[in-house]
Every structure is written in C-alpha cells, then in structure tokens.
Design a protein that fits this description.
The structure is a single chain. The protein is of the alpha+beta class. It has two domains: 115 residues, Aminotransferase class 4, branched-chain amino acid transferase, N-terminal domain (D-amino Acid Aminotransferase, Chain A, domain 1, 2-Layer Sandwich); 159 residues, Alpha-Beta Barrel (D-amino Acid Aminotransferase, Chain A, domain 2), CATH 3.20.10. It has eight helices and 16 strands. The strands form three sheets. Strands 7, 8, 9, 10, 11, 12, 13, 14 and 15 form a nine-stranded mixed sheet that branches. A five-stranded antiparallel sheet has the order 2-1-6-5-3. Strand 7, helix 5 and strand 8 form a beta-alpha-beta unit. The model has no long low-confidence stretch (mean pLDDT 97).
C-alpha cells in the first residue's frame, strides 16, 4: 500500500509523523472520507470544498491548492491501482510542542491521503435493515465545536458509538442539547412521514453530509416531497421509513429504533427508490481516473 505523505508516496510502514504533531496530541486538524466507484471519485470536488471550509474555520492553512489536492487524491488511487476505494484525507496542524498554542507549529501542515477498502456494515443490514438506539451522549453544540467542522477530534462521536455497541447496536442516534434529533455517530438520518421525506436541518447540529445532500437532490429529481425539518424521537417512532446516509455507509435502511419497529419493519419503497438512484449517481457524478 502506498500512502501520500506531505507530497511523497511512501510505503505503509514508512508513513510516519512526529509524536509532536498537533493532530496526534490534540486532534488539531480536519479530514474527509471519500469513495471511488469503478474509477470515479464520487463528489470529489464537494469533499475538497468541505475540507478547505473546515480548515478555514479552525484557521489551518493547507499547503496545497484545491487543484493540487484533487490531483494528489487521484495520484494515490492510481499508485495503489484501486478502482473501488475508500479515501481518507487528513490534514493536521503539524509538528509543534507539548503546549496548546498552534503558533508553535512552525512548519507546514501535515497532509496524509490513504486509499483502501472499507466495509462499514454487513450486507445483510443493507438488505434487511438495521436497529439503532438513542444514546445519552448529545451532539456537540455549535458554540463549543461546530459539527460542520470535520475535525480530527471525534471523541463526541466515539463516545456515542461505544454506548451503541454496549447497547447491542452498531449505530447510535444522537440528539442535540435541546432534545431534537440531530444525526448518528457517522451518518445523517432521514425519515418518511405521511409521504414526506425529512432530515434534520444543519442548524440542529447535523453535519451537512455530501451523501445527505445527494439524497436531497435525488428526491427533487424524483419529485418527492422532501424538506429539512426539526423532529423528535417520537416522529421517528411513528414514521413509515427511516434510513441513514454517509460516505462510508452509503444508504442503509433502519427498521428499529429504541425497540420500536419502523413501519412494517422492512426497508420501505421510498428508501429503495432513492437507493437505486443513488447507485446510478455514483457512476457519473465525480472525477474520473484510470489505473
């Protein structure tokens, strides 16, 4: 495996950073997870834009132009001869000292690109649907660490994931500090209620997911009634359908939440329609490359 590290492609065993890197010491950095399908990097430009937006928000200067970063992603995929892959793009503050002050990180930011495979959930869950539970850990509030920033500090999500696993589920539903539905540990959430497709607005603390936005675009194409809307767990319990979206997860049906069956307890027709269109979208919406 070849890893992109600060402008060079190195072997996995040689892909090393300093223990004084602020990304390691403090989670001081940003990242993106990206997918490629049959030599097409899905929504690559959108992912690059979000990476640079996150970096700007935490005042982290990325030492590559957006064009150069795009080329680096493609270069890494080609070097590993991957047609289908999961790409993890990481930018940290770089090497500093043991203090918090980011001004002590005097060199360039550290840029890492990893291209590999990923299987987030077993195939059976995509076919039959999954169960999720609500966990006590609430989503970060925007005034503390804005969820729109894809920060390397993912402890909020990890704590919720631990609680889900302890509760016998693979994914957790997270509420915001007001008790409204926000998102899951690594996925956005959608429900279908009385024929309307709904997802929480980003103002509730949900990440503006790339796949989330793709689903909203698909809904418009299919002339479905779709909107961002505030809702509670009660609204999920009485919904006809529920599904999660994310780059790694793609689109996965949810058939049980906190012990309540959703609809008939099977992936619903709206979910299946959107999933079919999403698979078509992954074949044409992105940046092509060859191996």
């Amino acid at each position: 495996m070849k890893i992109y590290l600060n402008g060079r492609l190195v072997e996995k065993s040689e892909a090393k950073i300093s223990v004084f890197d602020h990304g390691f010491l403090y989670g001081d950095g940003v990242f993106e997870g990206i997918r490629s399908y049959d030599c097409l990097v899905f929504k690559l430009q959108e992912h690059i834009e979000r990476l640079y937006d996150s970096a700007k928000s935490i005042m982290l200067n990325i030492p590559l132009t957006k064009k150069a970063m795009t080329e680096a992603v493609v270069k890494t995929l080609k070097a590993n001869r991957l047609r289908d892959a999961y790409i993890r793009l990481v930018v940290s503050r770089g090497e500093g000292d043991l203090g918090l002050d980011p001004r002590k990180c005097r060199g360039n930011a550290t840029v890492v690109i990893i291209a590999d495979s990923i299987t987030l959930y077993p195939e059976s869950l995509y076919k039959n649907g999954m169960a999720i539970i609500t966990v006590p850990t609430v989503r970060n509030i925007a005034e503390a660490l804005n969820p729109q920033i894809k920060s390397l500090n993912y402890l909020n999500n990890i704590m919720a994931k631990i609680e889900a696993v302890n509760g016998g589920c693979q994914e957790a539903l997270m509420l915001n500090s007001l008790g409204f539905v926000c998102e899951c540990t690594g996925d956005n959430i959608f429900i279908v209620r009385k024929g309307t497709l709904m997802t929480p607005p980003i103002s509730m603390g949900a990440l503006e997911g790339i796949t989330r936005n793709a689903v909203l675009d698909i809904a418009e194409k299919l002339t479905l009634d779709a909107k961002e809307n505030i809702f509670t767990r009660h609204d999920i319990f009485i919904s006809e359908e529920c599904f999660l979206t994310g780059t790694a997860a793609e689109l996965i049906p949810v058939v049980k939440v906190d012990g309540r069956l959703i609809g008939a307890g099977l992936p619903g027709p709206v979910t299946r329609r959107i999933l079919a269109e999403f698979k078509k979208m992954t074949k044409k919406d992105g940046v092509k490359y060859s191996v």
